[in-house]
Amino acid sequence: MNELQQADAVPAKAPPTGRYWLMWLVLLALQLVNLGSSYLPLGAFNVVVNVGISIVKALLVMAVFMHLSSASPVMRLAAGVGFFFLAVLIGLSLGDYMTRP
Amino acid sequence: MTTIAAEGAPSYISAGYTLRSWLTTRDHKRIALLYGVSILFFFLVAAAAAAMIRLELLTPAGDLVDDDTYNKLFTVHGVVMVWFFLIPSIPSTFGNFLIPLMIGAKDVAFPRLNLASWYIYTLGGLFVVVTLIAGGVDTGWTFYTPYTTMFSNSHVILAVTGVFIVGFSSIFTGLNFIVTVHQMRAPGMTWFRLPLFVWAHYATSLVMVLATPVLAMTLALIAIERLLGVGIFDPALGGDPLLFQHLFWFYSHPAVYIMILPAMGVVSEVITCFSRKPVFGYQFMVYSLLAIAAVGFMVWGHHMFVSGQSMYAGMVFSLLSFLVAIPSAIKVFNWTATLYKGSVRFDAPMLYALGFIGLFMMGGITGIWLAALAADVHLTDTYFVVAHFHYIMVGGAVMAFFSALHFWWPKVTGRLYPDGWARAGAIVMFVGFNLTFFPQYIAGYLGMPRRYHVYPPEFQVLNVLSSGGAVVLGVGYLLPLLYLWWSLRRGRLAGANPWGATGLEWQTPSPPPTYNFASAPRVEGPPYAYQAGGTDGR
Ligand SMILES: [Cu+2]
Question: What ipTM was predicted for this assembly?
Answer without folding.
Answer: 0.88
